Amino acid sequence: LSAIPFLRPGDAEGVVARRGAEAITLPQFLADVARVAAALPTAGYVVNLCADRYRFAAGLCAALLREQVSLLPPGTAPELLRQLARDYPGVYAMSDAEQPDCPLPLCRVDALPPARRALEAVPSFPADRIAVIAFTSGSTGRPMPHAKRWGSLCHSTRAEAGDLGLSHSGSVAVLATVPAQHMYGLETSVLMPLQSGFALCAARPFYPADIRGALEQMPAQRVLVTTPVHLRALLAEEQRLPALRLIVCATAPLPSALAAEAEQRYAAPLMEIYGFTEAGQVAWRRTMDGPTWHTLTGLHVRVDAQGAWFGGSMLGQELLANDVIEAQDERRFTLHGRNADLVNIGGKRTSLAYLTQQLLSVEGVRDAAFFAPDSTGDGAGVTRLTAFAVAPGLERQAILAALRERVDPVFLPRPLHMVDALPRNATGKLPREALAALARAFAPARREGPG
Amino acid sequence: MDTQTTLTAQERELAELIVSALNLDLSADEIDPAAPLYKEGLGLDSIDILEIALSVSKTYGFQLKSDDADNVRIFSSLRSLSEHVQQHRTK
Fold it and tell me: What value of ipTM does the predicted structure carry?
């Protein structure tokens, strides 16, 4: 079987990455990979927590060299990582900073001595090797694994660069506001640059002023990989940005008014990526061109009674999307909405069923339900979850503290209502309307926002 | 909450800004000025911090930055955030 190199050589200077004003070249990268690979313990699985995107990339390459699979859990809540350790014995965490709440054995990779033997060339890995396992929440309270083969990741990210119009673009540098530790971040901010000869930026800017500062340190051509939440914050500041080649946005639907404003202010096309954890990225659209999505080169879409399937040689098998999709032909479709059980807050995804299971697992909670209120309709604004718990003798704060151990903070209920009983119907089900009524009963005088 | 210290006028103004920006289910006076804004205190997360940064920029005329060495301390409580705001405000 064919082997695919970890990265394609970039421009004439061989710049692999940038950290601030510093350019990191291929020889430096190979030296860094060698020393991380030498420092990793023997194990089958690793959770790569490196916040610095360059260190994440070197760590991913080192793990592949050591034949270790990188796990991408949906969060880093301690109980979630403990569950991972039960399912993947021997798993450890690789990190470039202290991780006081991490229950896994830690391997620090930020201050390593040079390796005794350097790598002579860019390493290649078999296309059928499982490089990464991503997880969805599942409905049973246990994360569901989705294995990603090295060849599939490489083909899809190379196709992405072409479809976004970035192939043969000379010197391109990619800056991202998203972490590398989920499929969008891994594919678009790490593997797309590496597989296409672009430079990846180590930083992960947060505030609008950080994003501007990071862009100012980059050479043309600048690509910004972001989310609706960050883009909305960026547009709210009256600041000029250096010229952009392209803006890429994903994780949640982007209101077209925001896309229009971004294209006009920054004079660059704005492309959205559509994907789901089971398949990774599968399609793109330029938001301003309308609702039609295009499958990535090499992929097709097919709709049957079960839903929309995405397939193509790089995926191996067809995979079912969770969204309501209408196909125009094999390569084009429109997105009509999300499965009501799925939750997406600030780009983090889970399901109401999973969250409810986590709440029920708190000792003393007898019955519980999570509820997603209708969005307030102001576009990219973030809607938070409501939860109800039947837990005689337990304090609200104690339940919240236990929940914080189990789920990502963005999913913590706001508010958590303590109730005597849930409005279950005769069959024991909880109709959404009954939960909505209960939520309204608790919120007679909602404060008005600033508008 | 009976041990809570009272807010200064500046802290109250900032607390009201936060409550309104985040649509929090409490009043400005219920925020303990010394309690952490993250996690166990007010329970805010990074999406909220971004929202607060926008409101601060609009109201006080300066932008928060991550490379501020004191960033962790700044968000450690309403009081420390208020002090940072008073030092850097341009309006």
Answer: 0.82
